[in-house]
Design goal:
mainly alpha, 0% strand
Length: 320
């Protein structure tokens, strides 16, 4: 009988509702909660200066640029809705600018990537690798303006390239490299690749030297040839580096300005302009800040969209 009463009391006690915190506990949170709040406030205090600087020098000008792009440059009808954006369909110079920008994106992504990977792979374990890498990386230390000066000396009508062709009795191939489209855009893309390949070589060398040699040796023992080792063993392990190289090249190609401006200033006429050069011309030379703001907004959207789509695709593949 007593055993049954004890079990009944135990079941009754177990059925009681859980204890609720007292009023004192509600008024005075636990020390752990206070510590978490203090850590969050401290982290916010450290981040606040950086957030304020980004907002002041990046977000605020971008918001103002968007606002300014909806206003015309005339005093009679300042608010123009989407008139500035309609210039992309009606202005032949901007149409050519979009074509040049696409050519720059393709050229500045493909050439540095392919050349940088090939040079890094070929000079990774050779006796003359240091000298070769120095010669290739050295142009990256130059500014875009300095590179443009060097290539202007080579590509003018009486420049070094035409003189060498004439000396080799190939004068029929000599012509004004910077005066005809699309050849002038192509040679400027080559000049940019001459400079940009250096950083791609550095990044790919870092990636190659971080690959465990055991994986390559295992592939060789399994009978894989040099091309199979590179394609199935080396290249997949270079994916993180490839993401960085292509991302940097993509952004640099979309915002190319200094090399184009020093070589041709967007000419002859406006044949070699990219969106970045068109933005400068419209805003500061033609004194049309509304049209320049619209071009800046479109260029920013293109850069963000291209970067986001590329990174999303690469991260999805990596996650799989």
């Amino acid at each position: 009988m007593s055993t049954y009463s004890t079990q009944q009391r135990t079941c009754t006690a177990g059925a009681l509702p859980p204890a609720t915190p007292s009023d004192d506990e509600q008024r005075h949170p636990a020390p752990r909660t206070l510590r978490k709040r203090r850590e969050r406030l401290t982290a916010g205090a450290f981040m606040a200066p950086a957030v304020l600087l980004v907002a002041a020098f990046l977000l605020a000008p971008f918001v103002w640029t968007i606002y300014r792009s909806f206003f015309s440059d005339s005093r009679t009808s300042p608010f123009s809705w989407f008139d500035n954006y309609s210039l992309f369909a009606s202005d032949p110079a901007l149409t050519r600018s979009i074509q040049n920008t696409l050519m720059w994106v393709v050229g500045t992504v493909v050439l540095p990537f392919v050349l940088g990977l090939a040079i890094a792979f070929l000079t990774n374990a050779t006796r003359w690798s240091r000298l070769a890498r120095l010669c290739i990386v050295l142009p990256y230390a130059l500014s875009g303006s300095a590179v443009a000066v060097v290539w202007n000396f080579m590509l003018t009508t009486d420049g070094a390239v035409n003189q060498v062709l004439t000396t080799l009795h190939l004068g029929s191939l000599a012509h004004a490299w910077l005066l005809t489209w699309p050849g002038n855009t192509v040679v400027m893309i080559l000049a940019n690749a001459w400079q940009a390949t250096g950083v791609a070589v550095i990044l790919f060398l870092v990636g190659l030297q971080s690959i465990p040699p055991e994986t390559v040796e295992a592939g060789a023992l399994d009978g894989a040839g040099s091309w199979q080792q590179f394609r199935h063993i080396v290249l997949p392990q270079l994916r993180p580096v490839s993401i960085i190289v292509i991302g940097m090249s993509l952004v640099n190609g979309l915002k190319s300005f200094d090399l184009i401006w020093v070589l041709t200033q967007g000419g002859p006429g406006r044949a070699t302009e990219t969106l970045a050069v068109s933005m400068y011309n419209e805003t500061f030379l033609d004194m049309r800040p509304g049209a320049g703001a619209a071009i800046a907004v479109v260029l920013t959207v293109i850069v963000l969209a291209a970067s986001w789509l590329y990174l999303r695709r690469q991260l999805d593949v990596k996650g799989e």
